[in-house]
Amino acid sequence: MWQLHQFPLCPFSRKVRIVMGEKNLAYELVRENPWDKRDELWQLNHAGRIPVLHDTTRGTTIADSRAICEFLEEMVDRAPMLSGNSATRAEIRRLVALFDENFFQDVTAPLLEEKLAKRLMLRQPPDSRALREAMKSAHGHLDYIDWLVDTRAWLGGSMLSLADMAAAAQISVADYLGGIDWAGHEQARTWYAVVKSRPSFRPLLTEKIEGIPPPAHYAMVDG
Amino acid sequence: MWQLHQFPLCPFSRKVRIVMGEKNLAYELVRENPWDKRDELWQLNHAGRIPVLHDTTRGTTIADSRAICEFLEEMVDRAPMLSGNSATRAEIRRLVALFDENFFQDVTAPLLEEKLAKRLMLRQPPDSRALREAMKSAHGHLDYIDWLVDTRAWLGGSMLSLADMAAAAQISVADYLGGIDWAGHEQARTWYAVVKSRPSFRPLLTEKIEGIPPPAHYAMVDG
Ligand SMILES: N[C@@H](CCC(=O)N[C@@H](CS)C(=O)NCC(=O)O)C(=O)O
Ligand SMILES: N[C@@H](CCC(=O)N[C@@H](CS)C(=O)NCC(=O)O)C(=O)O
């Protein structure tokens, strides 16, 4: 039995959930609040981070969302997310790194800090300058998605891939936290509406974090 | 012709150079100072980061060290660095992420900031508290390497792999900057002495950054 240790607004956990949904894999969710720093999580993953995929039957444990996605690609033929020749696969992996690292650092992480960590743990209001900076960076990243969508069928090339999943996972968390303004990003908006309407995405869109409601358009499939 | 855009003390560039050395691939080095933010680099890599591997003949460009290493694994059979079944490969990739992300964040990045960026760009002395913190974190990571070496032939399992290359690349930069104290880490020290003595490592150990000399033991193969 697969258990996924995750947090609903962790974009890396979301990426893995979407990929597992596309591949039609059954798994159980184990909620981890990153700020709890539970001993059990540190025992499963020396980095103390989520997501962690744990096979309770065989005892296998895989940490790091990219390691998990590569593993799922190798194990499950259904719904390939990293197909094509080596150059195409390299391009998909480049984009995954861009969204996992740069989009996360510039946009998702500061939004999580200001709107979630400060509210739930420190009972402090968000710093409006940090929020403005994050939203400005989001525009830069959405410009790049506009450009990708103008030149390709999907972000990574001619096929739906991990690049789309990585980008949509980050955007969905940023959108939940009110950090995405689609004005001027018609191509990115259209691409995201398509990804978001996939059945693999639906379970994410109905989840709520206590005390932090998403904006009205967040879960609307044409929103 | 392959060109690698890199900086001598960038641990991700080092990881790629070691892997290309192991695989016996010819390439040209193009030096990029990360702080220069050259337009040419941004044109090659939208993330503005090194390393970038550029095939000047075919025009292929690959950014992100993990994407580059996966590409080299797929293209070149010689000296496999990611072999074994999917669970073993996942374990190697987990460790690569641990060293690329956690070791880098906790140890290499603060050392680069305090000892290189501050000196070369701001002409400021390093913050001794930040240096102490980084060296304390290094001990924690070396403890974990001690434990891995106690239980396995190489960090990722029974074979030399990307996990060893990722760890050794981070350590070599931290060691250049005086951040590694081997006291109490006999297993890690022995493992590192073996990796460091490989021919793929040698070119890195003789390079110097102007104005920042490495400690005396840095390039000694039994040091
Ligand atoms: N590279 C990792 C990053 C995972 C990550 O940063 N997870 C966050 C939650 S979104 C976390 O667990 N943070 C707690 C910590 O770093 O201590 C992955 O792709 O899985
Ligand atoms: N995930 C990237 C990280 C690369 C990275 O952070 N490179 C640093 C130099 S060590 C850099 O180019 N920094 C400049 C910047 O982030 O603007 C990889 O593995 O290649």
From TrEMBL, chains A, B:
Residues 85-215 form the GST C-terminal domain. The keyword Aminoacyl-tRNA synthetase does not apply. One of its GO terms (cellular component) is cytoplasm. It comes from the Bacteria. GO terms for molecular function: transferase activity. Residues 1-80 form the GST N-terminal domain. The keyword Membrane does not apply. Keywords: Transferase. InterPro entries: Glutathione-S-Trfase_C-like (IPR010987), Glutathione-S-Trfase_C_sf (IPR036282), Glutathione_S-Trfase (IPR040079), Glutathione_S-Trfase_N (IPR004045), GST_Omega/HSP26 (IPR050983), Thioredoxin-like_sf (IPR036249). This is Glutathione S-transferase family protein.
